[in-house]
Amino acid sequence: MASHDATATATVPEMAPVFHPIVWGDFFINYNPEPLQMSEERMTERSNQLKEKIIGLFSCGTIVEQLNLVDTLQHLSVDHHFHEKIDSTLRSAHAGEFNSSSLHHVVLRFRILRQQGFWVSPEHNTNNKLTFRWWKNLYREVGLNYSRDRVVECYFWAYTAYYEKEYTRASMILAKIIAIIIMTDDTYDVRATLVECRQWEESATSFLPEYLQKFYLKLMSTFKEFEDELKPDNKYRVAFSTKAFQILSSNYLQEAEWFHQNHKPRFNDQVKVSSVCSGGPWICVGLLVGMGDAATKEALEWALGCTDAVRACAEVTRFMNDLASLKRGKNKNDVASSVECYISEQGVASEVAIAKIGSLIEDAWKTTNQAHFELPELLLPAVQRVANITISMPFMYDNKTDAFTFSSRLEGTIKRLFVNPIKL
Question: What is the CATH number of the domain that holds 273?
């Protein structure tokens, strides 16, 4: 008992803490507010007018605009005035099909419905559905029937860089960038005239044919969607991506000029331009846009500079694609490949040129590996994602085949990843 008392005594403070006196004193006892500038009846009338105006907003606009309205009313803590309208809106949002390709809109719908007690599956498959819907709308509205319809393969390609759930946003943005590269490449190679290519490069949109005007507008809209997906202090990343696209377009134009002039460039000149036209450099910049905090401004500047690992990624993509094109054939506006230019310049047989290109691919792999050891630690997360994309190239172009264009070769891999679950 003595021990128990000692312990109890030890935990009791010697004296109670001193609390400061009431801040308000008798203020509210003696307080008499000034008379209102309008009568109670007038205030009630004005309040009812505003309520009717807000109720009217529920009857117009898209489902996204209505969900934004609900979100605003909840933030202002006045949603209890509109209980019936909010309930009706949420029931419609829950029951109806939701076709937005914006991750922000999907998250808004998910959050509001969930917090109001409506069940919404957290599984996403949602991110790939958003990407597929975005492509379907773009393909239909622009009229891209001349281009390869390969959005699933684009999604798979992005997945090779970002397979973790926490990088869903980065993967979606990258998939769209890859799809835009394919679409732009096919536009230059298959559809657009040289004049149209020059007008596109000069942003002379008013002179472009209707399909290219639509393409341009959808492209600008997509870049704006990228910005909307990012936090305010990360929106600057989209400017790097836009710059990379401009560089890509300039090099596409150079290839178009060579083709229409029937000019076969020197090997080094061809590689310099066609490596950019592989889309690899923009992919390496674009994969950083939706990444987390590791995607620093320094990392974006490094990627845009197209050195070491980024250049190696572009070269592996270009050379493996060119080797595959020997089998598949070229599009009608394709410029001479690296293999053809080497044969012409060196006067060698195709077997010698193919061996040379193979050795350059090996050199590019070495550059990719060296980048992990030679670059600052700050850049290593970005380097690894670039390496992931480079490593994916054998999926697309191994054994001198173009599995991306002739995508039945990827069907089994894609099904194993996204369709058929692993049996436990």
Answer: 1.10.600.10
